[in-house]
Amino acid sequence: MTMATIMVPRNAASRRVKVKAQREMRRMWPGTGMKVTVDALPSPCFVADARGITRYVNSEAMTVYPGAKPGDPLSFSLRAPSLLEAFDRVCSSGEAERISWIEKVPTETWLEAHIAPMYMPGTAETTRPQELPDFVLVVVQDLTENRRLERMRTDFVANASHELRTPLASLTGFVETLQGPARDDTEARDRFLAIMLDQASRMRRLIDDILSLSRIELRAHVRPQTRVDFCEIIRHTNDALSPLAQDMNVEIRLDLPETPVLIAGERDELIQVTENLVENALKYGSTGKVVDVTLTPGEACEDGTEWQLAVRDYGEGIAPEHLPRLTERFYRVDVDSSRAMKGTGLGLAIVKHILTRHRARLDVDSEPGKGATFKVTISE
Length: 380
Ligand code: ADP
Known about the structure:
Largest sheet: 5 strands, antiparallel
Mean pLDDT: 89
Strand order of the largest sheet: 2-1-5-4-3
Oligomer: single chain
Bound molecules: adenosine-5'-diphosphate
């Protein structure tokens, strides 16, 4: 025991002397080859020495951490305690580590760092654990976007199953009632069957919309190749929706150019866009009695290379706080009125995805009490 207690401080002291000698010896700066390589990497990279002093930062790191500069401690730019602790561990063990952490300020950010020791040629592999690395490479990656997408995906699955479970529960309930207490009640049976048909249609609409959304997502990066006449698509939509317009007692007024307006697009998808927008205007703006659908050259390009479709209703409109969220999946200003109108809450999400694929834009203007205008800006 006594021997051990005497030995430990001695060993530690001798190691400190050795380390100090090494530090003196190895006060070198990264060579051009290393700098060029690190500069070619797409993520922020720091090259530090084993004391934690920055020796080089690549251009990406200078963009993300504007204050980072050689000569300063690494902790001036990377403050996360878990990262600095991992850095010390990498120096003493000689083993690379990957750690992740969350920064709350200014906005929530998920970060990951890969910390790897670098030994210059001449350091024998066997002595590495005892020797400090010449340099330590810290590569930082921002995982925020990936995490957000993951969260969106899980939220979507949760929302979709919730939306499907409600009509399913109602269907099961009615089946059980018809098998039991209402077995011989003809009047109740007819009423229940009508509700069941309604619930089954709701499930079908939901599944159709979910499949439609995932089909569009699959092709999100492929730009449509065909050219279509946007005027014809709008007229087709008008014809398809005239029975609904009659039911809702709303007049659709078209104002379109006389000549065809040819744009790069997928006919079926653009029909989905126009049908969704006009149908929403008819359903949610019916109190205005009129829906105006106009197609005009875009404001930015009067030469006709850009076109703007505006679908305007004069109904109750949408309060400003809802506007930024309308294209989110399952977002509805009023869930009950959407359900009553056979809505799924996916219509505008589908519209947005189709327009993104077409490199087109959706803008919404609305003043509560005065109606809403949905504008699509699309180029030839
Ligand atoms: P839904 O299937 O519920 O119609 P959408 O994604 O098409 O879903 O629309 C989302 C929500 O936006 C609707 O539930 C409705 O509250 C609101 N909305 C859409 N268009 C209009 C409009 N023209 N006027 C008022 N509210 C609208």
